Amino acid sequence: MFRIRLPRFYPVFSWIQIEVTTKCNASCVYCPHYLCRSSWIKRDISFEIMKFIEPALPTTDLVYLQGWGEPLLYPDLWKMIEFLKKRNVRIGLTSNGTLITREIARRLVEAGVDIIAFSLAGTDETNDLIRKGTTLSAVKRGIDLINEEKKKQGTPLPRVHLAYLLLKSHFDQLNGLPSLLNELSLQEVVVSPLTLSLSPELDKEVCFIEELPEHKLIFLKELKRKITAQKLCDNMVIHLVSKDITELCTEKIEWSMTISSDGHIYSCVLSMVPVKTKLFYYHLHAQCEMIPNEFGHFQDDTLKNIWYNKSYRSFRKRHLKENFEELACSRCYKRKIVTI
Ligand code: SF4
Q: Apex CA 270: angle with CA 265 and CA 275, to 5°?
């Protein structure tokens, strides 16, 4: 819910996403961190970013501490959470689960983190082959530890989410989802397709609805019905990519802002992959060069001025009119998402 203490003319945000670090202890086979490892830029965001976003916090619903890295590796994470919580902001983060010990779980619950999402790409040891350096058992243990702490501290927060990546060649892994959810206690499950493919092989792993045989589509609908009916979570969402449909992107760019770990302001995380070289990706099997949607740096101006600067305003206007041409958005799967 939005709070009403409005400094006038401040933008209202559903979320501000902050990439706190680009460091990660895993090597997921589809992730730019692994695929671009020779040119990866490892860095942590300056804590000064808190002063930059502070004036916008009264009109911000959620600050999500996530980019191309594992947030639990960020040295100032606890200080940042404390800063945000003192200002009554909801906080979320996504973790690979490997670093969640009993002590970390206790601190996350005690600090009042609102959402913690765990990433998976399979429901058995296949996950461990895809998400190298992480394990399904570590994710299960992480979820259990958070739930034990919630119980101990008598709080419903953080809500525990599952961010499940659906790769086309591992579609059948979804068969194991109901029994996995039965073992765990989760509030939300989001099954998503790959939306950034950095190689032709990975682009073949994108799950297009038009290529899905009828029985698999029926299976997905039944999976959602079953999980919902059995109350295995409060909310389940399944996304696929469409070859034909093009919509406004799912990143709600009118209501959100993303800040990279070097302090630049972007529309979303997709175009801010931290590499030293040019980045190429694949869209509908064609190679494209990534053009960053970047609109300023936090040390150069206030958040409000950057949000309303000419290039950011023009970007949002063009986005609404679906006039993308040279922008990364013209070839972005996030504009082709369909919900099952
Ligand atoms: S269309 Fe894609 S690149 Fe453009 S803002 Fe949305 S997610 Fe980012």
A: 80
